[in-house]
Amino acid sequence: MSTSRTVLITGGNRGIGYAIAEEFIAQGHRVAVTARSGAGPEGALTVHADVTDAASIDAAFTRVEAELGPVEVVVANAGITRDTLLMRMSEDDFTSVIDTNLTGAFRVVKRASKGMLKARFGRIILVSSVVGLYGGPGQANYAASKAGLVGFARSITRELGGRGITANVVAPGFIETDMTAELAEETQAQYKSSIPAGRFATPGEVARVITWLASDDAAYISGAVIPVDGGLGMGH
Length: 236
Ligand code: NDP
Known about the structure:
One of its GO terms (molecular function) is oxidoreductase activity. Keywords: Oxidoreductase. With 236 residues, this protein is an alpha/beta fold. It has 8 helices and 7 strands; from the N terminus they run βαββαβαβααβαααβ. Strand 1, helix 1 and strand 2 (30-35) form a beta-alpha-beta unit. The chain is globular. The protein starts with 5 loop residues before the first strand and ends in an 8-residue tail after the last strand. The structure holds NADPH dihydro-nicotinamide-adenine-dinucleotide phosphate. NADPH dihydro-nicotinamide-adenine-dinucleotide phosphate binds next to helix 1, strand 2 and helix 6.
């Protein structure tokens, strides 16, 4: 088994973040999740935080550090969509998605890097999307935010790679969560027909890739984009 770590996951009260927390707990790690509402799974410390607010992120980290120790693994998972065609997309539709998905990850990772630099160890995992590199009609804001995470992870790798810190991107395809449940049945069927695997994934299938990236076995992987999309994107 891999060394037991202190892990913080943003948006761990539902969906993929909740599954990631469950998987880290099952593997014996100390786990904290941030939530704006609700709570993470049993065994996780839930702290209130909004990724659009740097002060709330700072307070969340301070509490986690006090209760579980310095954060060694951070998973920037919190994300939103505000899909609409470019012609109808307001500036607020665009900037609010960037602020949560990209600048939110920056706020979280910047705060996490303090302790990681001191420890000369860290695992930074950013939850992107197949759409980040594939694009999606009606998703200019979301795709831009998710593609931005790739440049962000690669720059961190170049800056901090010599200090025992890795930064990687996981790019899920369609996963069974609230985000995809909103899609009409017909749209879901259309998407499934274009996925080589012929199905959506479970949140656990994403979570187990993330726990592996945080493990001792993945120490030499950094700046990578790992697709978990049943072959939908191919060509990252
Ligand atoms: P959900 O909509 O089920 O959950 C989103 C999570 O993000 C919730 O915990 C939510 O908290 C949190 N969140 C949103 N905004 C903020 C904020 N400002 N501050 C703190 N937390 C926030 O999404 P998924 O679980 O499906 O998605 C998780 C990640 O995976 C996202 O980054 C998403 O883009 C990505 N992804 C999802 C795919 C899918 O098919 N589902 C595919 C590819 C990528 P709250 O409950 O308080 O709103």
